[in-house]
Amino acid sequence: MARIGCNLQDFALQPCRRRLRLLLLVLVCLCGAPAGLEASALRLEIADDLDSESLRDAIARSLQYLKKLPPHAILGEQPRRFTAKRALDSLVAFEKTLERRSCPRCWAKEIAARFDLIPSSEDPARATVLFTGYFQPVLQASLFPTAEYRYPIYAKPSDLILGEQVTVGARPSVEKIAGRLEDERFVPYYSRREIDDFGVLRDRGFEIAWVNDPIELFFLHIQGSGILQLEDGRRLQIGYAASNGRPYRSIGRLLIDAGKIPKAEMSMERLRRYLLERPVELAEVLAHNESYTFFRFLESGPLGSLEVELTPGRSIATDSRIFPKGALALIVTQKPVVDAAGRLLGWEPMTRFVLNQDTGAAIRGPQRADIFFGAGQRAGGQAGFMNTPGRLYFLDLKGKTVPASHAR
């Protein structure tokens, strides 16, 4: 989905609750663990709170991606250098362990015996990860502009130039850039204000659909994909095509810093209500986030940055510059419990195997991960409230490791 942003409440952490049930604790043997980590001090519950079918689906989609890569292609440097072959071998071996899942204790023992569970960072000060959520919104839409449907969804413009900026030195890096040509000069692409308020792309043939709500359209840009509900009953999938390359800036943070919404109250629904109640401020608030998403129609989806379909509850987005793309991980955190309308009912512990299949402009660094919750109101509620600290562990089949290019 190549997420442009996280959910809009990337601020206050929900307090963790103590688990009330007896946990199956398995000593995780970290063969070849990073220096500074005491294996005996790491006690981790190996469990999973979702069904096996969704896990098999997510694994199959990562395998689909990995099988297309050269075996020695580097997927990520942290927390250990992963090649495509190493990630693929780990997934194939892990999938076979699912046959023993009917015996949770047996399954956990086999996983602990056969896999290294590597913390996302070897630095204890950076080992805590903030988990947020994202989802597929459903928007009322039309394929033609009308008096009601007057807010356009744009395809990737023909004058948008995408490239890479390479930095050489002790730590070489490659950053994606976007822009356009103006008087034979490469300049930044148009901002959200220029596109939505000044209409620089209007009537140039880039529109693919129109919606009736500018706030929901903005949230669509943040989520990176959605479902268009047409008046004739049809539903069309749309997904990320490109972005304007401008930096993502949180409007939730803007309103918190301005004292307009208390930090403890911030959620997607609270932000939506604020914007609905203050239409005079709407354009200015939305323009604060200069990042702009362009879309395309999809036959199925949603698709993550690996161009494979995302699995609700199983796919996560992380910083693709750091973590291994397509790899298997275990997350330990808290999850919001919501009703069918997306209203918060409470919180529950969550320990779950996930696949690293997406990324996002706001998901930066080793301490951020975004969980895909699916489509609709319930998923939107879960994504909107998900804002909890936890731990992230990548699974690597035990054996000869590939040294990282640098330690973190």
What would you say this structure looks like, in words?
The chain is an alpha+beta fold. It is 22% helix and 31% strand. The chain is built from 9 helices and 20 strands. The strands form 5 sheets. It has a 6-stranded mixed barrel. Strands 8-12-7-13-14-15 form a 6-stranded mixed beta sheet, covered by helices on one side. Helix 1 packs antiparallel against helix 2. The protein is globular, with a radius of gyration of 22 Å. 41% of the residues are buried.
- Count of DSSP-assigned helices: 9
Looking at the structure, what is the overall shape? globular
The span between the termini is 28 Å
The largest sheet, given as strand count, sense and whether it forms a barrel, is: 6 strands, mixed, barrel
The average pLDDT value, as a whole number, equals 87
Helix content: 10-25%
Strand order of the largest sheet: 6-19-16-18-17-20
Structural class by secondary-structure content: alpha+beta
Count of distinct strands: 20
| Rg measurement, Å | 22 Å
In short, what is this structure?
With 408 residues, this protein is α+β, with helices and mostly antiparallel strands. The protein is 22% helix and 31% strand.
Feature tags:
single chain; globular; alpha+beta; six-stranded mixed β-sheet; 408 residues
Give the arrangement of secondary structure elements.
Layout: E1 25-27, E2 43-45, H1 52-66, E3 74-76, E4 82-83, H2 84-97, H3 104-114, E5 115-119, E6 129-136, E7 138-142, E8 151-154, E9 161-167, E10 173-182, E11 185-188, H4 192-197, E12 207-211, H5 214-223, E13 225-230, E14 235-243, H6 251-257, H7 268-277, H8 279-287, E15 293-298, E16 315-317, E17 328-338, E18 344-358, E19 368-375, H9 377-385, E20 387-397
